[in-house]
Amino acid sequence: MRWYIAIRYLLSHKRQSLVCVAGVTISVTMFITMVAMMEGFKDKFIIETVESSGHITIHDEPRETRTKILELVYTDPNALLAVDSVKPREDVKKIKNAAGLMAQLRHLRGIEAVAPEVDGDAIATYGTKTMTVSLLGIEPEQQLRVTTVGKDVVEGSFDRLRTTADGVIVGRGVADLLGAKLDDEITLSSNTGGRTTSRVVGIFATGVTPVDYSRAYMLINSAQTLLDKKNVINDIIVRTQDYTKAQGYAAQIESIAGYKTESWQESNANFLKIFAIQSIITYIITGALLVVAAFGVLNILIMAVLERVNEIAILKSFGLSRADITWIYVFQGVIIGLIGTVLGEVIGKLGVEGLRRLPIQVEGLIKSEGLLMSESRGMYVWAFVSSMAIVLLAAVYPARRAAKYDPVEVIRGAH
Amino acid sequence: MARTETMLEMPPARVGHNPPLLEARHVRRVLGTGDAANEVLCGVNLIVRRGEYACIVGASGSGKSTLLYLLGGLDRPTRFDAAGRPFDPPSQVFIEGENTADLSDTQLAMLRNRMVGFVFQFHYLLKEFTAQENVALPMFKSGRLSRQAAMERSAQLLKRLGMGEKLKRRAHRLSGGEQQRVAMARALANEPRVLLADEPTGNLDRRNGELIEDIFHELHAGGQTIVMVTHDLSLAKRADRRITMEDGKIVEDERMGN
Q: Chain A contacts of B114, Cβ < 8 Å?
C-alpha cells in the first residue's frame, strides 16, 4: 500500500515529478561522462606509462649510507666535525652484480620478468636539428618481457634493433622534432665524448607525450659504449604479476637489492597527484550537481508534505503508522531517484559512446585520436549508489516531518 | 439524492454478557505545556458497550472531540502531571480491553485500522484517488482482503450508500455530501467494532445532513456501535444515549430510549 500511495502521489504532480527526475538524470549523466573522461585519460596514462616503462625500476643508488670516517673516530654526538675541501669520490654509478640480482629477483613470488638497462642522456642530431634524448640501452629479448615497447612500434620493427648493430628506435615525438624518418641516420653524442651514427630502425608511439618526445632505445652494448659505461647496468626493470601492487613489491625488492627501487606510482607521483586533484575537482562538480538535484527532490517532497497535512492525518486515523507515512515519502524519493538514475546511466552511457566517436585530436600529456573514455563499470555503480544515497537522504527529512504530524492537532486546526 | 439501499452488514449484535468496547478511566488530557497548559479533560470516566449509539454533546471547548479521539486511539491520554508524577488514579483508555498506553505507535495504528472507523466534519479524502480507491485504502492497509476483493467490497459499500454511479470519480470532483458518504464508507471498510463520528453533518447542507443522519440510524439498527460528537440536535435525538460534557467533565449521561 505504501508503494501504491507513493506512486499515486507522484503521478498527481507529474510536472514537478518530471522536473525532479530530470534533475537527477542530468546530474547522473554529467557524473558518468565527466568521470569516464577523467578516468579514461588517467587509465591511458597509467597503462601506457606502466607498460612502456615497467612496473618497478631498480636504480643504481645504493640504499645503505656510509658512515663518515670522522664520525667513526669521534663518536661524541656533540662533537663538531668539519672537513674542508673534500673531493667527491669518483665512483662509477652502477648496480653491482646485476646479473646475480636479476637471477635472484626472477625467483621472487609475484615477479614476472626482469630486464637490465643502461641509461643516459644523449644529443641526437639530424641535419641541422638537435635535441636531447633519454637513451636507454636494452637487451631486446628481455625488454619485451617487461615492457610493451615492441607493440608500440608504429613504423619499422622492434626486431630490427636486434639485427642492426647501430640501430635506434625513437619515439614519435623525437622523430617529428628531428624531422627524421625510418632508415634515416641520426647522430648520437654523449656528454662523455662518445659519438655514433645510428639508423632509425623503428619509431614507437606510446601515447604518453613525455615518453614519446624524449626516449630512444638502442642495444645495450652500443649504449654502454656511447655513454662510456662499459659493462655498466644502471637500472633493472621489473614486471610484476599485478601492477597495482607494485609499491609493495618495490619495498620488498629494495630490501633485497640494497638499491633505490621505485614503483611506477613513485616514479610518476607528480602526474598521479595532478590526476588526484583533477579527480577531486571532478567529483566536487558532479557531486554538487547531485546535491542540487537532491535539493529539488527535497523541495518537491516538502511541498507535497505541506499540501497533504490533512491527508496524512486521515491516513493515520484509519491505521497508518508513523513508519507507514515515512515510507510513503521515502518511496517517492526512491522512485524519483531510481527513474532519474537509470535514465541518467543510460544517457550517460550513450554520451560516453558518442564522445568516444568524436573526431577530436587530443595532444597534451597524452596523445590520442578521439577522447579517451573509461570503460569501467565501477563508475556506473558509483553513480547509482551516490545518486540514490543523496536522493534518499533528501527524502528522509520531509518523510520524517510528515510522520511527525499529530493527526489530532491537524484535525483540530481544520475545525 | 439516492437513499441507502439497505442495511450494511455489521458485526453480530450483543447478546448476553456485553463487556465494555471502549472505556475511559479517569481520563485527563492536558494540551500545551507550562503556562500554556490547558486541561481539556479532567478525569473523565465512560464506558461504551457494543451496539450502543452514543452521542456526546456540549459547548465548544468542553472536550467532546478530545474524548472521541482518545476513545478511538487517535490520541493518548495525559499520564503525568506538570511535576512529572503519574496521575493517581491513572489516566487510561481501553479499546476492547487493550490499554492504549501500553501499545506502540504501530500497534495502536493497527488497532485503529482493525477496530475503529472515524468520520470527521471534513471528509479529508485523498483527492487524486477515486471514491472506490479511497474506501479501499483501509482494507489495503489491513491486508485481510486481496486488492481485488477490497476494491469489490469498496464498490459494494459505496453502492449501498448511494454512490454506485460515482465509484471511479476522483474525490475532488464529488460534492460535499458525496464526499462525506465516501468518508463514511471508508470508515466502515474494515467492519470496525465502533464508528466514531466528529460533527459528521457539521459541514453539510440540510438535505445532505439528513441523508447522513439516516445512514447512521440504519447502521445502528444493523448493530453498529456508534459514538458521535455533534451540535446537531436532530442527530443527537436519534441516538439512544446522550452524554453531555462541560469544562472537560461529563455532567450528564442519559439513556434516550430510542
A: 319
